[in-house]
Amino acid sequence: MPDFDAINTALVARFAAAAITPPTGYDKVKIATGDLPTGMLPLPCVLVLPETGDFTHYPGKRDSTHEYIVRFYYNQNGDLERDTAALRKWLTVLVDQLKISTQLGGIVTMATVISYNVGVFDYTPAQYTGIELTVSVLVNEAWAAVA
Q1: 15 in a structural domain
Q2: Mean pLDDT, rounded, for 123-134
Q3: CATH classification at residue 8
């Protein structure tokens, strides 16, 4: 079985402050986590969580694809018009965070960004401008059903 916690932790590491060089003139990511806080963290920050997945079974193996959401929260003002230029610069940085290492270790064959959304996102109780990446994680594992 895929270790979803380990996958989440590996993705968080790829989007942590130490792993990201911010665009010139912008603050670095303050925190990246897969443990959703009850309130917003210092900005900018990254939250990572699993969203959906599919399994395909073959004799002796199982392949699966899982989608994780990587959400970058930039600014609390919710003013997308004002933050658009900054978000474009951040998007350039964030979409390539997995380019150097698409393997997360273990049975993860590949993790890639498959889509993004730039907009205003709710995080109780406020709105934040930001970027949402969808990351596809491919897992190949040996697997045998037991009767």
Answers
A1: yes
A2: 94
A3: 3.30.70.1700
Please tell me the pTM assigned to this model: 0.90
Contact 85, 24 (CB under 8 A): no
pLDDT one-digit tens code per residue, 93-106? 999 988 766 556 56
Burial class of residue 96 (count of CB atoms within 10 Å of its CB; 0-12, 13-18, 19+): exposed
More confident residue, 62 or 26: 26
Domain contains 147: no
Structure tokens at 19: 């792993």
Measured CA to CA, the distance from residue 64 to residue 129 in angstroms comes to 32
